[in-house]
Amino acid sequence: MNKLAGQYFDAAIGLLERVRDEEGDAIAAAATAVADTVESGGRLFAFGAGHSSLAAQDVVYRAGGLALMNLLAVPGVVGVDVMPATLGSALERVDGLAAAVLDTSPAKPGDVLVIISLSGRNALPVEMAMNARALGLKVIGVTSVVYATETRSRHASGTFLKDHCDIVLDSKIAIGDAELTAEGVAAPFGPASSVVTNALLQATMAAAAGELAARGFDPPMLRSGNVDGGHEWNGRVFEEYGDRIFYRR
């Protein structure tokens, strides 16, 4: 294997092993919050801006995932399809946007909102967490805690996403999100935040499904539409839980 490719795999595996070993209690707490919400009739939402939105999208309408996870979308910041792509970064720094999104969303007290932001320093994720908790939602933050010790918040309060969450999952990603350096390459490269954040959330969803099953509650999971019977299975789930699923409307 190419030397740098191998080094990237080693770095990613090292980070995955670290979050597995160090974030177990937080993952368990997040899984319990998700399971409690599903069992009690609540809804699940996930939000991320820019590349952080990839992890949010990865747990929504996903084969093998919980059917009740919904994307809390903010126009212009979900992904890099908006033109220019830099607009999404600019919108993350706009005050008041989070409140407007939450006020017009179907989220209600008792629901769970997962907020993903690698740095946790921009106004949008900070205000999203602050406003969500004020509305009575339980907030799970997925972020790299080290940013709060070595960078400045861009929110007027001077706080970070981690300061406004009920549960924090720390991705352990180093500031700058670049695992590799090499001669002839001027900037560090090899971002690993998507790999680790996706794994953290999928581990949480897996633990939540197991906890629901242990309670005797059949978790509403989706199956792949590319296996025989998958569409029929999902159709039954959508019919039973349609009032808590918003990505089909």
From TrEMBL:
Residue span, SIS domain: 34-217
Classification via InterPro entries: RpiR-like_SIS (IPR035472), SIS_dom (IPR001347), SIS_dom_sf (IPR046348), SIS_GmhA/DiaA_subfam (IPR050099), UPF0309 (IPR022951)
The organism's place on the tree of life at top rank: Bacteria
SUPFAM superfamilies, per database record: SIS domain (SSF53697)
Pfam families per record: SIS_2
Family to which this protein belongs: Belongs to the UPF0309 family.
Name of the protein this chain belongs to: UPF0309 protein QIT00_26850
